[in-house]
Amino acid sequence: MTINDILSSIEAGKMTARQAVEAALKKADETSEYAALLSLTSERALNRADEIDAKLEKGEDAGRLAGVPFVAKDNFLAFGAPTTAASKMLENFKAPLQATAVEKLEQAGAICIGKANLDAFAHGGSTENSAFGPTSNAHDKTRVAGGSSGGSAVATALDVVPFTLGSDTGGSIRQPASFNGVIGVKPTYGTVSRYGVVAMASSTDTVGCFAKSVDDAELVMEIMSGRDDKDMTTLGDVMDSAKAVKPVKKIGVISDFMNGDVDNEVLKITEAYVEKMKAAGYEVEPVSMPIIKHSLAMYYIIVPAEVSSNLARYDGVRYGHRAEGIKTLAELYGKSRDEGFVTENKRRIMIGSYVLSSGYFDAYYMKAQKARTKLIDKYKQLFESYDLLVSPTAPTPAFKLGATGDDPVQMYLADAMVVGPSLAGLPAISVPAGDTPDGLPVGVQLIGWRETDRSLFAVARKVEEVANDN
């Protein structure tokens, strides 16, 4: 069911908020074999549903999302269940507050029913790095869900709830959206407050959502967006519905991602989507962006550097996992972090510490930041001629569980198409474009210049309408 389906049913008296929540909890239980959710907030969710039903019965305004259940990725602080970030480090952490995004949705009447699985601390592209086991793909249980927001994508694809929350640092919403055949939104950096979300890399972390319709995704982003005094990077009216949508006429297809490095079926589906864009009246042509091939190298220097800094707070002293039988402070730090972090966390901490260390800072970190500036300049140059850019979201459909377990570099290559917009702070949406002959979904990525998020929704909606008419 879509958000509008639930709202219409509640308004018509065919369903109560409690019944909507009960249905979502039942569906979560029925699909538990996919391991999309780490915990349910059943008691709190049902209590909130009763409060909303009482408001509606009195004729009071219960909000734009009154009675609509949703799921939050488990790196969002939320009441009713632990916030673990899918790690042993935070296995029993009870949130003292809620993330601003969750608060805004609940103020609008939405009801959080559970927390979704992810790669621990959002480090990964398959949800196999979760300390509590991997999530299975919604279309093929032998394949990965994608990551790091794999649990959120699968919960959406399985219709547990009409929308879920995710975080996107370098593709963590868009890639699993592609793998599971749903819409995944990474907004302009700063559109939604990151307050109350476990930090990964502060210069690229963004809060977005998954949904099964463009309208649902746009509504959720509109409600979550806006300035927040608790996050000084937040912007004002990016998703303001009263703000005029910049018209899109000319679209560029990034030719550097339409080559032999991309799965043949992904290329075919992307090319078919481009034809639908042309049928929708857009002028579409290939564009070259040679620097984009270096974006992955930039990302895996800059982001681990920020990861190493952000994870330094987890030391076994203030909060989080604390190792037992320790004799010295150094041993406490070392053993607590060794037990609390998964292998990928440790790998990124080590890379980040290395590129920030004396003698290597200029050679790696500063060089990557200078290259990042050139990447942003190239995007800016292209957006002087084009209103929107297009590429596949991922080079392949969902791969088999365990296929890249011993080869982290191969896993990183799955992010090749999504890290560029993250480094540049650009809005990007992955939209379902079709399925392979094996029934595996493939997504296409729409990229806009900063604060043109609503234009991306407009294009996605128009292409969706043209495809449905045909």
Q: What features would you describe in this structure?
A:
The chain has about 475 residues and is an alpha/beta fold. The chain has a domain at about 5-225: Amidase signature (AS) enzymes (Alpha-Beta Complex). Helices cover about 40% and strands about 15% of the residues. It has 15 helices and 11 strands. It has helices at about 5-10, 15-30, 40-55, 100-105, 150-155, 175-180, 215-225, 265-280, 295-310, 330-340, 345-355, 360-380, 410-415, 420-425, 455-470; strands spanning about 35-40, 70-75, 110-115, 165-170, 185, 205-210, 250-255, 285, 390, 430-435, 440-445. It has an 11-stranded mixed β-sheet, sandwiched between helices. Helix 9 packs across helix 12. The longest helix has 22 residues, at about 360-380. The radius of gyration is 21 Å and the shape is globular. It starts with a helix and ends with a helix. The mean pLDDT is about 95.
Summarize the structure.
The chain has about 475 residues and is of the alpha/beta class. About 40% of the residues lie in helices and about 15% in strands. It has a domain at about 5-225: Amidase signature (AS) domain (Amidase signature (AS) enzymes, Alpha-Beta Complex).
Features:
alpha/beta; Amidase signature (AS) enzymes; about 15% strand; 11-stranded mixed sheet; globular; about 475 residues
